Amino acid sequence: MKRNYILKNKGRIALVVGLLATTLLSSCLKDTSPGSLDLSKSPALVGFQYYGFGETPITTKLHAEATDNTDVKLTLSVASITLGSAVTVNIVDDPTDAKAYADANTAAGTPTSVLPASDYTITASQVTIPAGQQYATFKINFKGNVIDFSQNWVLGVKITSASGAIVASNLNVAILALTLQSLYEGDYNDNGYTLRAGDNVLGGYFKGYDEQMNTISAFSVGYTILWATDVPAGGVAGTFFTVDPATNKVTIGCSTNATLANAAGYDSRYDPATKTFYVSMTWSTPGTRGTTDTLTYKGPL
Hints:
This protein is mainly beta.
C-alpha cells in the first residue's frame, strides 16, 4: 500500500510540472514584452546594394571608352519581400564621402584620388522602385577615354531622402572604385596545336582547354601558352595579345622572351562578332617552337 501511495504522489507531481511547463511555453510564444522581436512590423528600408553591411567600395570596371557607363543598384528591404506602393529615392553626387575614403586609403598606403566631376555624369537625381519590385538601377556615364587608369580613382553617390521607405543609414552612400578592364578580358575556350620539335608528348593537338586572359591595358590581354598536355610552356611567361580596334589585327609579344612574335604568313586576328581570337606565334629557334590557337569567349573572369 505504501508503494502504491508513493506512485500516486509521483504521478501528481509529474502532472503539476507538465502544466507549469505548458503555461511557461504558452507565455513565451505570446510574449509582447519590449524585448521581443516581431519582424513583421519592421519598416521598409532602402539603400545601395553591397556584398557586406557597410560602405564597401563597389568595383567599377571601365573600358577606357568615351561611352563607358555602369549601373548602380538601389535595393528595398521589407518583411513582405515587396511593397504594394512605389518608393522614390533622391540621390546626389557625394564628393565629401569620396574624399574621406580616398584620404583614408592614401593614409593606409594606397594613393587614391576623387575622380573629377567633369569625367562623369549621374544620369538621374531621383529613382523610383516600382510597386512589387525589390530594386531599381540608375546609370553613371564616364568619359573613360580621358581617365588616367594608372591612378586609383573613386567617386561617391549618396541617398539624401526617400518617399515610401526609410533610408538605411549604413547603406546610404556608395563609393565606386574605378578600374580598367580590357574589352578582350575574359574566360576563353582554347583549341589548337602546339609545336615542340622532337616531342610528341608536349607537342600536338589539344581541345577544350581553359584560358583566362586578364587586362594589361585597354586593348591588351595576357595569354598563357599551353603545351598539348595542358601545362604552361616554359620561357614564355608574360605573353600578350594587343588588338588594333580599327582593324582587329592582333600583335603578339612577350615581356620575357624577345624571340616570341606573330607566326609569319598567318593572319592573327580578333572577330568581335563571335568574340574569338585566331592567333599563331613562334619563338626560340625558328621551326622548333610554336602554337596556333582558336580562343572563343565563354564568359567574364
